[in-house]
Amino acid sequence: MNVFDFAIRMEEESREHYEKLAAAARSQELKNIFALLADSEREHHEHLTLFKAGTEPNRAQSVVLERLKDRVHELVEHLIPTDTLESDYDGYRHAIKAEEASIRLYDELAEQEPNATAAQLLRQLAEEERHHLEVVENIYDFVESPDTYLAWGEFSNLREY
Fold this sequence. Notes:
By secondary structure, this protein is mainly alpha-helical. The protein has one domain: Ferritin (Up-down Bundle), CATH 1.20.1260. The chain has six helices and no strands. Helix 1 runs antiparallel to helix 2, helix 1 (3-24) packs across helix 3 and helix 2 runs antiparallel to helix 6 (116-144).
């Protein structure tokens, strides 16, 4: 299986999953969170599509992914548990854990891959997921900042260095 086809399917499944969670969410805050995550997955999908276009198809053939090609939906469901997220107001923490699990998955697949070029591409995908994790963490920080803002008078005398 082509490494990029697998990664793109993972992104598509994740985006669809977040869209379903946004539709099923009980609060507007959760709907917004999951919509932002779905948009982030869409952007990552577009980035991977460009990455795939610039890579020779023969270099991206993986032996290890052949075993997982029919289990992408199952992998996404396992990484992002629907039943937990529908009512959890801190859904981002689960999304961050899912991104970390994706990184581990790509790293482990790279270790098992006998094709050296495909293994290198899997490592690059793990690195892409690390960048995507940064995006998700930045969204999380942005959303959470109003709740964690420190504005007590006793701290007003502190200077930034």
